[in-house]
Amino acid sequence: MTAPLTLLIVEDETPLAEMHAEYIRHIPGFSQILLAGNLAQARMMIERFKPGLILLDNYLPDGRGINLLHELVQAHYPGDVVFTTAASDMETVSEAVRCGVFDYLIKPIAYERLGQTLTVSASVNICWKVLIAPARSKLMRCLMPMLAVNPKTNCRPALTP
Hints:
This is Transcriptional regulatory protein DpiA. With 161 residues, the chain is α/β, with parallel strands linked by helices. It is 48% helix and 19% strand.
């Protein structure tokens, strides 16, 4: 079994963030729960702790969560992002979905729904680490020698008759 995930809650309403954290503490699969009240704190915590899952509000004191989501996509950030926001307009929803959010939860969030999302995210993360990533790594180790060019023949072994 892999190590539990670190989770970052990016939410400027401190009591709400603390309620989310308290609820999440009872869900298996999460080892550390971090809180950020704005984008600057979130960026610092993402850089330092590399959370496997980020709960991201859209409306924050120093900007919009969707902008941070774009930054994460450009950086090929490997963790999942769940949007947790009051923004229900189709433009924001579509933009977040195009950026690959794991889920989009509209406030007020039903904790049963949040729990389902977090459980699925943790399970997918474990499947990736335990099953897919090692198989991909093994496949690459097998393919790389076949794709390498032989300096004597200037051919790839896999293509040589």
